[in-house]
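Q: What would this chain look like folded?
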Amino acid sequence: MGKSWTPDSWKILPAEQQPDWEKSETYSKVISEISGYPPLVFAGEVRALKQQLGDAAQGNGFLIQGGDCAETFDDFRADSIRDKLKILLQMSVVLTYGASCNVVKLGRIAGQFAKPRSANTETRDGIELPSYRGDAVNDINFNEDSRKQNPKRLLRTYNQSAATLNLLRAFTTGGFADLNKVHVWNQEFIAQSPQGKRYKKIANSIDDALTFMQAVGINSD
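A: My prediction, written as structure tokens:
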């Protein structure tokens, strides 16, 4: 990273496909308010991720990323968030065993509320309106009021992202990510899905490994 970097240096860089609300007084007030809020992620978390990504780049790990193309305000339910995490954990267990290396699990979640658009407008049936740029900017419904860019949506974006992160942290530190539990989910998948039967041999091998870990007193959390 260059010595000229500052927390605001990104503002001088060229940026395409951006909402046109820089001159909005409401936008300035919203940004000022959010800047006083706690960070969504903390320095220690960022450093840990950088270390893990560096290890993966050197061939000492594997990166798996999953999540929505764009989150929405309406699809905000604990069970939905839990299930996305569950899928990542299930995949990572199989990859960890098969590749015999650390798997970095990266969620495309808790902040993915904006969408780039190559065109500023969208036309339907002869009606031209601003493009949908994600729930952080405007609404997907095709009418004039919904497509207005509203900076106040950034506040809801922050709050929903914070709530999602808190829930994910609670899941991962509260035993939800325990290897034994994740392995049981995989066994259920194998039992219920014809395609899953192809992975039965791997699942049995993982079961043996977990049994060995338990026998020698290795914690599976």
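The radius of gyration is 22 Å.
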